[in-house]
Amino acid sequence: MVHPLETIRERKQRPHPSTFPVKLPEMCIKLHGIKNAKLILDPLMGIGSTAIACAKLGVACVGFEVDEEYLRFAAQRIRSLG
Ligand SMILES: C[S@@+](CC[C@H](N)C(=O)[O-])C[C@H]1O[C@@H](n2cnc3c(N)ncnc32)[C@H](O)[C@@H]1O
Asked: Is 71 in the pocket of ligand 1 (CB under 6 A)?
């Protein structure tokens, strides 16, 4: 049964409901110029698609994510890059 006051948090999909593909930040960083990208800031990190793009391109990245579960998943994705 669906609760009438269901919240977005209750409807949270796994691992995240609204990510974008890693290719997108990767293309944005390349367009900006990798040499000019000293540090990328992602204030809404989610499961870390931008951080992964940065890792792949060798660009430093910092980010914020309010949801610990998403943050853990992001860290796991980044670690799995090796
Ligand atoms: C659209 S998602 C970002 C998805 C990310 N681009 C990806 O591909 O994984 C936005 C994220 O911002 C986080 N968020 C919302 N408000 C925040 C805040 N004040 N500080 C840090 N993170 C926040 C949410 O938990 C959510 O995971």
From this structure: no
